[in-house]
Amino acid sequence: MVARVTRVLALCVMPVVLLVSACVQAPGTPPERGLVYGDLFGVAITTDPVATSVASASYYLRSPGALTARPALAAQVVAQYEFAALELEGLRFVGVNPLSQILMRQGRAELRAILGVRPDAPPEAVIRSLVAAAGALARQDRAAAEAAIAPTVFVKPPAEVLVLLDDMPAAVQAGRAAAFAEAQLNRPDGSHRRFHF
Questions:
Q1: Taking the mean position of all CA atoms in its chain, how far away is CA 144?
Q2: What is the CB neighbour count within 10 angstroms for residue 64?
Q3: Which end of the chain is more exposed for a tag (fewer CB within 10 A), N or C?
């Protein structure tokens, strides 16, 4: 019975994905948490974190000026992109068009080059650093944001990275990659739920 209710609710809320494509997590939130919309009988209803990350990256990286003078948001969106690129390589997404993974990897390389992230930096370390910086910037704590830009992750000095986040350069390849991945995840015949119960 619970499984049936879950399937019905998943179908009912699926169209909402189109409404949240421009949404992003609060800066400083780990991408794997997705977005929380409420609860059902005490059980949290959250978006799929990968779909949320892809949608956020697709919208913001393809919207000129959307990240200008919004460094906390820029850091969060790049963290979400890193998270999505990593997760799409997992077994859960073996049925997704493999071009999605290829393009997301290329877009990740573009974003890393823009912000001065080491090419060989572990994605988890990049995500942690960016999320910490995003949270600090949201609190207007520049010192903490600079401290979050770890030299083991970034080759550029912290102050330079924060300047780039404040005036985020265009990442055309990453934006297109996220848009392609979003389209694949939203295919009518896809089996990837956008909400978790």
A1: 22
A2: 9
A3: N
Cβ atoms of residues 58 and 182 within 8 Å: yes
Q: How many domains does the chain have?
A: 1
CA distance 146 to 150: 8
Q: Dump pLDDT digits (tens) for 75-91.
A: 999 999 999 999 999 99
Residue range of the domain that includes 159: 2-196
pTM (2 decimals)? 0.83
CA proximity to 192, closest of 18, 25, 4, 47: 47
Q: Which residues pair with 43 in a beta bridge?
A: 40
SS3 of the chain: helix, strand, coil, percent, to 5: 60, 5, 35
